[in-house]
Design a protein that fits this description.
2 copies of one chain form a homodimer. By secondary structure, chain A is mainly beta. Chain A has a domain of 96 residues: Sandwich (Jelly Rolls). In chain A, the strands form 4 sheets. Chain A has a 6-stranded antiparallel sheet, with no helix packed on it. The first copy, chain A, is globular and about 60 Å long. The N and C termini of chain A lie far apart (59 Å). Chains A and B meet through β1, β2, β9, β11 and β12 of A and β1, β2, β9, β11 and β12 of B. β11 of chain A pairs parallel with β1 of chain B, so a sheet runs across the interface.
Chain lengths: 155, 155
């Protein structure tokens, strides 16, 4: 069996269905066959966040989506809550997470389970981007932004 | 808001429910609050594989499970197929995957989507363990071992 560099380069297969795919890490947290997209269209509640979706928006059928988020220096995600859960795995750099009334430092390999309706936010104060995988249910509720002073005794 | 070292150390909360949890990476691909378990009880079809389950077996309710597998030098997983899909993300070392009639080298950050019923197997020829996350549907069919000569023209 010959060694292959890729599993498929057929754009149709890559974007439309249950075809095995390899998203090759090209170094520096960039990947083949996936491009960064806007974190959210709304721009008030977050800063310097990019999103890559490996599986979930290109025809695959699992009940979960696997995404990679990256937060630049002094960036932060929306302070929000939702019914669906997150499983986050840190791949790059260091960052912080607000989780309800707690705040934790995160680094490579840390795995964070965000329970339903936990108020949460991710941020990065370092020069190195803070990058993490985030797995969610394919069918999920919309995040609800949380105002400071709401939802937690800490704000 | 004070910085916390952990989110909960309550064993009951950790093992029974939708409570936010931090599986701290302790270095060397070992984590707080999770212990390696046997890959499979059947021992004929695989060698030198360990499994850690972060979420899915301790009361959380997402529709997916997040596990970490590690394959030691000259080890391999079962050559198998199943209806459910895998999303694999390499965290440690290098390895190989048989994917149907193809064979690919995998290294840090590579993301592999294994389509339904793809015949697949992971292996490691290096001294450094080959470690990867593997995300699956919470409800899934049992893997079916594939005999060499069956299921693919390559065997």
């Amino acid at each position: 069996m010959e060694l292959s560099e890729d599993l498929t380069t057929d754009p149709k297969a890559l974007s439309s269905g249950n075809v095995s795919k390899l998203f090759r890490h090209l170094g520096n947290f960039d990947w083949n066959h996936v491009t960064p997209v806007e974190y959210k269209s709304e721009e008030q509640s977050w800063l310097s966040v990019s999103r890559r979706v490996f599986t979930g928006e290109t025809g695959e059928t699992p009940q979960f989506h696997v995404r990679y988020f990256e937060i630049g220096q002094n960036g932060y995600s929306t302070l929000e809550q939702h019914e669906h859960e997150h499983v986050v795995v840190v791949m790059r750099g260091k960052g912080q997470a607000i989780m309800g009334e707690k705040r934790v430092e995160l680094g490579f390999g840390d795995v964070l389970y965000v329970a339903p309706n936990e108020v949460h936010q991710f941020s990065n104060s370092q020069e190195e981007p803070f990058g993490f995988l985030c797995v969610v249910n394919a069918e999920r509720d919309r995040p609800r932004p949380v105002e400071i002073g709401e939802g937690s005794s800490c704000f």
